[in-house]
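[job 4417] fold queue: 2 targets
>>> target A
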Amino acid sequence: MDSLNTLANSQVTHSHKSGIQTRPLNGFKFALPLLLVSVLSACSGEEPAKEEEKYAVPVETTTVIQGDVSSFYSTTATLEAPEEAKVVTRIAGLIEAIEVEEGDRVTKGQLLAVIDAKRQRYDLARSQAEVEIIEQELNRLKKMGNREFISADSMAKLEYKMQAAIAKRDLASLHVEESMVRSPIEGVVAIRFVKKGNMAKEFDELFYIVNQDELHGIVHLPEQQLQSLRLGQDAQVFANKHSQDTVHAKVLRISPIVDAQSGTFKVTLSVPNDDAKLKAGMFTRVELRYDTHNNVITVPYNAVVNQDNQFALYVIDGTNVNRREVSLGYREADTVEIISGIEPGEQIVIRGQQNLKDQSLVEVISSLDLASVEK
């Protein structure tokens, strides 16, 4: 207060000495009371802080249950057809007819194409005639009454000649039969390489037929997994990484050797494909089932909170939550096994736990209401 009066007097004295008449500033009159109020307020001490208001965090919960959880090894596999055939022609000739098209299902022995076989039929007729001539000569000699005029050597040569003629006739008959191109397996025509009217050379590829009723999934696994596999072991095959539709496969073959360059070994899966959804050549996602824990405590994996590699769940305790550290076991899809830290029947938070801490106040609401709150 004394300093303020001194400041005011010094301003008046300075004005009189200068010979200039001055009028006190109105703003100073208003500032002085405000300054006094501030000083008094400071001297009286700070006001007590208001108590922080508590509010309930909306959460969704579920009940801890028991179930079965399996351990999987995830990898990729290439699908192959165990039965496939590249149908070639055994004779040269003009393609007279095409009996099937791509996508047609064929049976074993079904006619696929017809090749012009006029030359082969002429060879067959000539070979048949040679056989008949030799056969008549043999019959004539055998019916002769006087066998002294027939040498055993001549008779033997004629019989060998007869066998050679029959073989030549059978080969000509085979060439005629091969002009009718037939399917060697049951399956689907994947590719047709020729058209009607094309000239086919010997061993030209005409069709590619594949049987996809059962496929083989080829998997290459690290050698560390060799001890965990066995024949007949279950596996789940997914068409792609986004698909949830699974096909249950079995381990069909396990290679007994490890590739020295890659450090992997080959595993062949038997993949049923009755509905023909999978195709040969596809890359698929595979999960090999190693082991299953039965009747264990399970919770949704999204309920687990991971902080500094410490796993925890928030358990409902009246209107509050308790933070429980837990130990995890096997994980299968969206379900995880809890080894310790929680008991069946307890209520845990599965949505909204990111906003929680130990002893937080919560309000349990439905999933629809929680979705509207998050929006």
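>>> target B
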Amino acid sequence: MTVPDSSASGPVGPEGQAGPKGRVSQDGQAGPDGSSGPPGRSGPSGPSDLPISPGPVGSGGPVRLDGPWTHRDVAANGARFHIAELGEGPLVLLLHGFPQFWWTWRHQLTALADAGFRAVAMDLRGVGGSDRTPRGYDPANLALDITGVIRSLGEPDAALVGHDMGGYLAWTAAVMRPKLVRRLVVSSMPHPRRWRSSMLSDFAQSRAGSYVWGFQRPWVPERQLVADDAALVGRLIREWAGPRTPEFPDDAAVDVYRRAMCIPSTAHCSIEPYRWMVRSLARPDGIQFNRRMKRPVRVPTLHLHGSLDPAIRTRSAAGSGEYVEAPYRWRLFDGLGHFPHEEDPGGFSAELINWLKDSEPDR
């Protein structure tokens, strides 16, 4: 698989918009003249045969799905990033995990906006509508993507909310650029040092995270992710979700994530951060990153986790508080799996908003 350079989407202009008029970007969306063909299809090499369900999949294509939010592109850290934003107020930046993209935060976008926040969900590098660059998937650089987006949005800081890989990067950004992180919220992901030690010393966590080991093979994981119109994506989401909420995932939501994974080069770029996390364990860059993450997190932190998460065990995540020298609150959602923000969006959003509005989060 050849990963196109970020310039394949066209140059980034002064407004953060990519590509000349009429060019089709990485997410299958047309330029200003709408010349990419009928809506909801990603082009000849995209997942054009997957069903288009009514509602959010509608005319927005595989990435820029319709809703009350606004889509646009911003330039940061030498690349172009797609964001969906809604509301006005203090910035809350939402970071998705694997195998998802910005749309995983659709419920929180509206809830945060209604609560008086500027809610922004971004696509990480290589995913959704953001650039797919040939390199730059180590956590330090990905964290600079995030802090660069904060700057590009004209904000002095942000509350970071990260799930899964987005949580891993949120931890990293809070250590690397603490002045840009007002508060930190992490869901379904331990602190990077805790993740490392659990994967290496806890057999149960290593087995639960076997997909990470499987990603180390060349080429095969990419092919498996997109085979049969990304059927594996649907299986992973269903297997990792908890049994308490049969409403998630429904077929329509699974189809959305399958379509997004089938955008060319997304599978490869989604896997690259996990490859770095394992292959760098004994390399100087990985050892240096692990040492760097010894620095404590010094911003108020809310740590959320599903009690039945099969991908990240509760005891792996629960020890992360030792790396926080600030108010730290641990919240376990009973009966939920790996996606608490989608399995119980009302409960998750209420916990998040109450904590963001709490002037004394250490209570």
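[job 4417] complete. Note on B: The chain is about 35% helix and 15% strand.
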